[in-house]
Design goal:
- By secondary structure, this protein is α/β, with parallel strands linked by helices.
- Helix content is 55%, strand content 13%.
- The protein has three domains: 2-160, Glutamyl-tRNA reductase, N-terminal domain (Beta Polymerase, domain 2); 165-294, NAD(P)-binding Rossmann-like Domain (Rossmann fold, 3-Layer(aba) Sandwich), CATH 3.40.50; 340-441, no CATH class.
- It is built from 16 helices and ten strands.
- Strands 7-6-5-8-9-10 form a six-stranded parallel β-sheet. The chain has a four-stranded antiparallel β-sheet with strand order 2-3-1-4.
- The longest helix has 68 residues, at 301-368.
- 40% of the residues are buried.
- Keywords: NADP, Oxidoreductase, Porphyrin biosynthesis.
- One of its GO terms (molecular function) is glutamyl-tRNA reductase activity.
Length: 442
Amino acid sequence: MFIVAVGLNHRTAPVEIREQLAFTRYSLPEALRQLKNTTGVEGCVILSTCNRTEIYIACRQEDAGIREGKNFLVKYCRQDDRELENYLYTLNTRHSVRHLFRVAGGLDSMILGEDQVLSQVAEAYEMARTTGTTNGILNTLWQQAINVGKRIRTETRIDRNTVSVSYAAVELARQVFHGNLEGRTILVIGAGKMSTLAARYLKDKGATTVLVSNRSYERAVDLAVKIEGHAIRLDHLEEYLPRADIIISCTTASHYIIHREQVARALAKRPGKPLMFIDIAVPRDIEPSVGELPGVKLFDIDDLQQVVLTNLEERQRAARQAEAIVAEEVEGFFRWLATLYVVPTITALKEKAETIKAAELERAYNRLGELTPRQKKIVASLANSIANQLLHDVVVNLKKAAPTPRGHLYAEALHELFNLSEGQGTEHGVDRKSPAAAEGRN
C-alpha cells in the first residue's frame, strides 16, 4: 500500500485556479465517495482551504494513484489536463507524509506558523472518516499529522508571535492597556481591509464599541454593519475623539486627518485616560507630533512592520525546530508502516509453522501408541520449543530490517523459501511490497 498526494496551493496556482478546485463542505462527501469508488483507490482524504486543495490517496500502485488523483481533479474543475498540469504537484509516499506533517504544523502556510490550518486538517480527516473513505493507514497518518501539528505548536510556540500588520496593532494595543481591552471603544477611520481587520481583532479581544468614520458615509455604514459598529460622519470626528480609547486610521488622504490641536482638546475632556493611535496609512493620517502629547501612544506603519519583522524572525527560529520535529515524526511513521508490511509475512510464517507442528504431533502420537497426558505434554512442549526457537531469529531480524529497503526483500524471500500462501496473514490489507522499497525509485 502506498500513499500519494496530488494538489495545488498558493505557491503553485493563482486564486482564479484555486477557486476552480475548491470543495465546499457540502460537496465534499459526494466528491470523496466518487474518488473512493475509482479503481485502485483504497482510501482518500481531501483537504480544501482557500490556499490549497490536496487529495491524499492510499493505493496499491503509486503511479496509478497519482494518475487517478490528477484525472479526478481535471474532471472536477473541467480544466484542460495540460493546463492544470502547470499548477499541480504530485508527491510519492515519503514526500506526501512529510508534506502533510508540514501543512499541519503551519510550515507550508502563506503566513508561517498560522494555526487555522490545523483545525482544517482535522476537519478534512473527520469528513473523510465519517463519509467512510479512509482506511487503516490513512487513519493512522492523519491522526499522527494532527498530533504533529499540536506538538509543533506546544514545543516551538511558532504561532505565538503574530506576523500580520493588523494583528500586530492589536498586540500593541493590549500592551498599552495592560492586556485588558474589555470595555474599550475603538474609532476606525477609513474603510480599508487593514483597519477593518484590526478593528475585528480588537473587538475579539474584548473591545466593546466600534465607531466607523469615512469620507463616504455610505461606506462607513456598510463597514459598521459588517463589524457590528456605529457609523459617524467624518466632519463629526472631533466630537467623538474623546470617547475613543483606540483610534485606527487608514485612508488614502494626501493630508493629515487628525491634528495635534484636536487631540489636545480631546485629552482635556478625558483626563487621566490614555489614548492610543494606530496610523496604518501611507502617507500618514495623523500628525506625528500627536505622539508627543502626555498620555498618548502613537504607532505608524513602520512601528507595526518592525513588530512583524521581529516576530517573523522568531517564527523562523521556531520553524527550524519544527522541521526537526517533522523529520523525527516522519521517520516514526515509516518505522510503523514498514513493520506493518512485514506483519503479514510473520503471521503467515507462524501459521504455517503451527500447521506443520500440529500435523507432525498427530503423526508422532499415532506412532508412539498410548501416552499418558504428561508424556503428551512433554512431546508437545518439545515441538513448541523447536518451532519457536527456529522462528525467533527470523522474526526478530525481519522486524529489524522492516524500516530499511531490505525489508521487502526479506519478506519476499521468506514467502518463496517457505512457500507461504498468498492469502495468509493479510489481515492488515497491505501489500508485502513496502514504500521503503519504492524510495530507491523516487
